Every structure is written in structure tokens, then in C-alpha cells.
Amino acid sequence: MFEYLLSGSISATCIVTMVLAVLVYWFIQKMKYNYPPGPQGLPLIGNVFQMSTDRLHEQVYEWSKKYGPVITLRAGRTPSVFVNDIESALEVLVKKSNDFASRKPSTSMQVFSYNGKDIIFGEYSPTWKLQRRLSVKALRHYMQSDALNQRVQDAVSEIFKEIDNIKGEFDPMAYVSFTVVHILSGLCFGGKYSFGDPDVSFVANNLDELNEALKKGFIEDYFPIIKNFYKTKNFRFIEDIVRRMAGEFLKRKYADAKKTFNKDKMRHFCDNLILARQELEEEGQDMSSLTEEHFLQTFSDIFQAGIETTRYTLLWSINYMVAFPDIQEKVQEEIDRVVGKDRMPHIDDRPNLGYTEAVLHEAMRMSTVVPLGIPHMTTRDTEIAGYKIPCGTEVVINHYALHHEPTAWKEVDRFIPERYLDKDGKLGPKPQSWLPFSAGTRVCLGEFVAKPELHLIFASLMQRYKWKMVSGRCANLTPWGNLFGRLCKPYKVVVEKRI
Fold it and tell me: Which pLDDT belongs to residue 7?
């Protein structure tokens, strides 16, 4: 065959030319880009069989100690870059935020987002910027009122009536879920709900089922072509959940709100979103790129994402209070001093409840409910920590690593709320490595709603009850979860009414 290639025939010349061209292209690309190092994978498969679906954040952090704070893993032949230190994270999220502002569409995420028509997973584009601008405008309008405070008080008052009558131990999950779904439902669409309301139960049950499906993972995300021929049972299951939640439930709620909209009588976030659109149109902004599906997905972002992160943060926070009764006592002493026992906590009390806020900050750090955040994608050829990576590369911030790095946190494995307080006992500046809501262009849309909401619910629960376990039992702080969440294992508590 070697003699044939040297014979000078046209075919042989073409073959040699093509091989040389491929080799030259490969060499140029290798010289042009310089991916960070990482564990050696298998040919064609990459690191797929080395990656755990429930503790990848821990694996990546451990690998970073060997290969450096920025590492590369491959699913098949596709590289993903993982960032494990705050300096590189801020380079990605803040200093070069536009370079990393897009999302790499995975097969499962395309299902959740109607092919990228939401804010969380949507591609960085003029339409995405307009959609986010519209949503921020609507949320700020909504938060100028006292609506959130009233929503929280309505919701916790309902569960107080239920918990007050419980004898013995119980799982707080159903009551926390009801509270958060009640608040987010009211925020988005208005209304008051009683415990056991079918709409509230429908949402909570579907989100629980979704978590179970996410825990299993989707082979379609690693090998997308498979879904063109055969969809796995788990993938079909999430398609059904998305259809029920977004395609039916949220769509019906949105349609009802549009029919009864009155700009002189604003009721909820949906009204504010409709009004914000009208105001932007009156200002001359072209809104034609935002379809009904974009609006529906905006509600899905605020509603579903807000419920999941909030309820699991609250479950972790209660569990930490059970585990550390001395810290729980300090929270309750502060609430009794600032709020008293004759009224419920108000959003205006928050600046004076610094220790309570610090406890929530520490609970968010220790639990890190969304350990790997939402993956970013480069919008152009760029660099991280001196490594050259091409446009279209997935980049993941390991929030777990940021929150558990001993050089950033003194006594990293201890629950220490005081680390967030200044010398006067007030909430101090945010520690640089504390990033539960991310930062920069893709910072969490609902951050300025989630923080006061969490504070109000948690303060109300601590004011009302002393939380503990049956004598002789200890709190279990071992997490479980999947690629998308680091969740608290189910647990049971007993409560002692304080007021």
C-alpha cells in the first residue's frame, strides 16, 4: 500500500493531501487552544464512567487538588471546564461575564425550557436580554409593595394551624413545601390557599417526581442522537412532567390572568409582567421577538426554580437548628428582642435581625443546594486562568468548592454564623467566596425576592416553635442529590410551641 501511495496517482495524492490537511488542522487547533488538565478518560467515551451523578461536585473538587483549580472533563469527546476557585470564578462571572454569558443546550434542558425560551437556560442574545429586562422591571414593581410580606404571613399562618395540632414527631417537608408553593403561587398568580389545596399539592408532587427523575440522569444528555431513535423511560417521564406543569397548569394560570388584567388594580407578578411589557412598548421597544412561550417560560423560571431552591434551603436550615440548639436559641433570643411575641416578623425587621440572616447565610454555604450552578457557555474564544478555550465550550462553576475551600473559610466544616457579622453584630459585607446566587450577567433573577422571602419564613418558624428531635436521636446532615441539587435527607422533628 505504501508503494501505491507513492506511485503518483491522483487518488493517492488526494488521500495524502487529506491526511496531511487533517493533521495540520489538528496541530493548529492544539496550538491555538490550551484546555486545562484533568483526569485521563477513555477513547470516545471520555470521563463519563468516572463521573458520579450524585456527587460530581465533590469529585471535581478533589480532582482540582491534583490537577489545579480549573480542570477539564469530557463526556464523549465534548470537553467541559470546571472552575473551583474564587479568582477564576470571578473572572468567568464578572470580569469577562459577556465571554461566558451563554448556555450550552443539553437535551434535557431543552425540554425544560421549550428549546431555550426561558431566562435560566436561554441563549445569550438580544431576545434574552429583553426578556430579562422585562422580568427585572416587573419584579421590582412587585417588590415595591407590601405584597411579599402579606403572602408570607398568609402562608405560615395556614401551616401554624396544622402544626399546632400535631402530637409527636413529623416530617416538616409537606409544611415547608406548602408554605413555599403558597407564596410563589400568590406572588405569580394571586389567591390564598388552604393546607391540602389541590393546586398546591399538584405542584409539590410534580416537583418531587422531577427530583427523582433528575437523580437518575439522562443518557440523552451524553449522547443526544439517541433521542431521535429511542427515548428512555426517564426522559419520557420528564417530558410528561413539563407538559403537565408548564404546558397545562402554568399556561392555564397565565391565560386566566391575562383575561382579568386591569392596570389600575395590580394583583401579582403576572400583572406586573403584562404591565411592564405595555410600558416598554409605549417607550418604543420592539417586543415582537418575545412570544407567548417566552412569557410562559419566565413564569416557569420564577415559579418552579424559586420553589425548589427555597424549600430545600429551608429544610436544611431547620435541620441545622435541630443539630445546633445553642444557635437556635440565639436566633430566637434575637427575634424575641427585635420583634417580640405579639406580632409576626415583618420585612422591615430584617436589618435588625442580623444573626438570623447570618444563620441563613451559613446554611446556604454549608448545604450549597445547587452545587454546580447552571453551566455557562463561551460566546467567543477566550481564556480562564491563562488557559485558552474556544467559543462554544461549557464552563461550570463549582459552588460547592467555593463554599468548602479551607483557605477561604476558617474552620470550614463548622456551622459558624458569626463569620458574616461585623463587630457590632450587624450583617457585614458578603464574603467573596459566598456565591449561592452566582454573580454577573447570569446572576439569579430572583435573588432580591428569595432573600427576604427566606428570612421572613425562617424567622416566623423560629419565633413560633422550638425545633428538636425525639430524645436520643441526632440530626442527619448527610446530603443526597443529583447533578442539579444537593438535598437534605428526609427527617422528622418535634416542636414545642413558644407563642
Answer: 52
